[in-house]
UniProtKB/TrEMBL annotation:
Keyword annotations: Membrane, Transmembrane, Transmembrane helix
This protein's name: Uncharacterized protein
InterPro entries: DUF6069
Residues that span the membrane, as ranges: 31-51, 71-93, 105-124, 130-149
UniProt keyword annotation of Transmembrane helix present: yes
Length: 157
């Protein structure tokens, strides 16, 4: 999946592969596919949790009981669609600037995934079952999106 172009090494003898920047449209397409797959997986997971009798309702971090709202069908997909916009920007910037785009993307997104776990864990008036479900949904989405996008990015430049 990495875009490569043949080149000649400095001695002029043998061609070498040099990784080039992945075209934005290809990166966008990969992000879209990864997001759709992650949305389907997280929505399925949330539906299974609801079907098992766990009520899903989440409050704001530092909020009160009046801030609690149900996690409805489609909430995971909508959240992923919104975050995808930022994710595409991050991937495009890394693709353009980093000397090792795939590695840099994995590091940056790993940190961001860990940070994304803070709001569900600190949400006020939220049951443990909901917190566990939301953390698991974040990890499911990351387990789908991060490898697909990082494989699309060049390992080196």
């Amino acid at each position: 999946m990495t875009a490569r172009t043949p080149a000649t090494d400095l001695s002029g003898d043998a061609p070498a592969d040099i990784a080039v920047r992945v075209p934005f449209r290809a990166l966008l397409r990969t992000n879209l596919v990864a997001t759709v797959l992650a949305a389907a997986a997280t929505e399925t997971f949330a539906a299974l949790v609801r079907a098992s009798g766990v009520p899903l309702a989440v409050g704001n971090p530092g909020g009160s009981a009046s801030d609690v709202v149900p996690v409805t069908l489609g909430a995971c997909a909508i959240a992923l669609a919104m975050v995808m916009v930022v994710g595409i920007g991050i991937a495009a910037l890394i693709n353009r600037r980093a000397s090792r785009p795939a590695r840099t993307y994995r590091i940056v997104t790993s940190v961001l995934v860990l940070l994304s776990l803070v709001p569900p864990l600190t949400a006020a008036e939220t049951s443990t079952g909901t917190k566990v479900t939301l953390v698991a949904a974040h990890l499911i989405a990351a387990a789908i999106i991060v490898p697909l996008v990082s494989r699309r990015l060049s390992p080196t430049r």
